[in-house]
Design brief:
about 575 residues, Nucleotidyltransferase, domain 5, 17 helices
Length: about 575
């Protein structure tokens, strides 16, 4: 009897709960937070398969993404029931997602028309080169005054253009007005609010600002940008703020998560913006770095956009309500961070699990002069150099897999240092510490290395799920929900761990200079002048070094034959 009473009184004490769907590049999570204390009560995670149909191509199955969300919701609801927590206390759901990843589906059948093209994907490199070549002065920043972004394979517009040009189903659906375009947030919200039976087709300003079709000043789709990429505006989702009720959940009653039907979806933020909110970086000048598949450093610059002169992006940080002002951020994006761990595991097989990497690197405590530039998808900020490729240099007979593991961790830290330097130059204000989050922050050696290489303290919150927390905060604070206060005095104090620099700055600078040298070696490796074979594949001659090698070999063979003929 007492146990039952205690359980029911616990339920009452918990008060309103808010959930978040966190759909990332490598996994999906569903998490439930206490709206009053920001405590994480329960969650579930499911890995997402990536496919690599050709070199440089990265895809995911939209149906698998959606199914993983249902599975995470079901399992979390089961766990909550076991904890004697009432699911009906969930008052709102927020969505946060991998940004730029591009989907097109049929609004009549609800079926995806192709796999999702992931943000890392490089198939559009020749499209990008073609676009840059037709700009005045071949300027990759030609659209930056409107978008805050360089013309790059990274953003959604070129992926959408590729789908319309190369996938017959997409082309036909666009012509017959059945196509819907969206980033992952749009696909999930549309499906979860009814899909082909009245689903809401929308996105938020943070995700829209990553497409190259959105004007960051007018805060809407830009007709001139759509014309530039030749994309019909009717296929685009409606742009909303990051915190408002978009629609209500519609879930089959035979699922464990059935009771979530009718709960409003009222928060939506691209994953890096969500982490900025979750880290409570609401003041101008506050910054955070997220270590996920890639690495993303965002700095809040307030309600006026700041354009970078040092290779950073200007992006929307958040807009927390229809009538609230938009806040902007400067962002440094690194394509490969956690992805390098996966590469060492899956491609080289030198580790079996990601936790092994820390032990392996700690065994030697140095890279022994080995430097690893993991430019698998070219280099993002601050270089924006799609022709760069991965390189490992400084090898000796003494180098072993432990040194390579250490060099891989250092690479993540050096890339962050490059972005931080650019950010300090753009703003003129130097960060005194770096707030961090994301999966890789559980690696304590990485955190210490980061402090050593930046020469400033690194601060890690004890609750690592700041991306999901940010989405939950936006959802709970929405008008019509109002269970989560974002007033500074109401925000709970975050407990954190601090890593202080432990090496002298001279050594740090020396290692950083060697890294910069290695980066230069990785530059201009691939160029892909399009070869007209109809599907954007490139010939062997598109690699300049390989082209010279093959042509040189041919001339040598012809020359040798000629000499031999003369000697007869």
């Amino acid at each position: 009897m007492n146990g039952t009473m205690a359980a029911s009184s616990n339920r009452i004490m918990l008060g309103p709960l808010v959930a978040a769907i966190d759909q990332g590049t490598s996994s999906t999570r569903f998490l439930v937070f206490n709206a009053k204390t920001a405590e994480l009560l329960s969650h579930h995670q499911v890995e997402i398969k990536q496919s690599f149909p050709k070199e440089g191509w990265v895809e995911e199955d939209p149906k698998e993404i959606l199914q993983s969300v249902y599975e995470c919701m079901d399992r979390t609801c089961e766990k909550l029931t076991q904890l004697n927590i009432d699911i009906s206390n969930i008052k709102a759901i927020g969505v946060t997602n991998q940004r730029e990843t591009t989907l097109v589906w049929d609004k009549e059948t609800g079926e995806p028309l192709y796999n999702a093209i992931v943000w890392l994907d490089l198939r559009t490199q020749s499209t990008v080169e073609r676009l840059i070549n037709k700009t005045p002065g071949r300027n990759k920043n030609h659209l930056k005054h409107k978008t805050g972004l360089p013309i790059s394979t990274y953003f959604s517009a070129v992926k959408l253009r590729w789908l319309m040009d190369n996938v017959e189903k997409v082309h036909e659906a666009v012509l017959s007005h059945r196509a819907m375009f969206g980033t992952v947030d749009s696909w999930l919200i549309w499906c979860l609010t009814g899909g082909k039976k009245g689903g809401v087709h929308c996105t938020d300003v943070t995700n829209a600002s990553r497409t190259m079709l959105f004007n960051i000043h007018t805060m809407d789709w830009d007709p001139e940008l759509c014309k530039y990429f030749d994309i019909p505006m009717e296929i685009l989702p409606k742009v909303r703020s990051s915190s408002e009720i978009y629609g209500l959940m519609k879930i089959s009653s035979n699922l464990k998560s059935g009771p979530l039907t009718g709960v409003p979806i009222s928060g939506c933020l691209g994953d890096q913006s969500a982490a900025l909110v979750g880290q409570m970086c609401f003041k101008d000048g506050q910054a955070k770095n997220t270590y996920g598949t890639g690495c993303f450093l965002l700095k809040n610059v307030g309600t006026k956009p700041v354009m970078s002169d040092h290779g950073l992006l200007t992006t929307i940080a958040y807009k927390l309500g229809r009538d609230k002002p938009a806040c902007y951020a400067l962002e440094g994006s690194v394509a490969i961070a956690g992805a390098v761990v996966r590469w060492l595991m899956d491609n080289l097989g030198i580790i079996q699990t990601s936790t092994e990497l820390e032990k392996l690197a700690a065994d030697v405590g140095t890279s022994y002069g080995c430097y690893f530039v993991p430019a698998f998808s070219g280099l993002y900020a601050p270089y924006w150099e799609p022709s760069a490729r991965g390189i490992i240099c400084g090898l000796t007979q003494f180098t072993n897999r432990s040194h390579l593991a250490f060099a891989a961790l250092e690479a993540v830290c050096f890339q962050t240092r490059e972005i931080l330097d650019a950010m300090n130059q753009d703003s003129g204000i130097h960060l005194s510490q770096l707030q961090v989050d994301g999966g890789m922050t559980s690696n304590r050696l990485l955190m210490q290395l980061q402090a050593d290489i930046l020469c400033i303290p690194v601060v890690k919150p004890s609750m690592p799920e700041t991306t999901a927390l940010g989405a939950a905060m936006a959802a709970g604070a929405a008008e019509g929900v109002s269970v989560w206060s974002l007033n500074p005095e109401d925000l709970t104090e975050v407990t954190s761990e601090r890593f202080e620099p432990q090496i002298n700055p001279e050594e740090s600078e020396l290692r950083y200079a060697r890294w910069k040298k290695a980066v230069q070696r990785a530059m201009n490796w691939e160029t892909t002048e399009p070869v007209n074979n109809g599907n954007e594949e490139t010939s062997i001659f598109s690699s300049v070094p390989l082209g010279f090698y093959i042509l040189g070999s041919m001339f040598m063979l012809i020359g040798a034959k000629y000499i031999a003929a003369g000697q007869k």
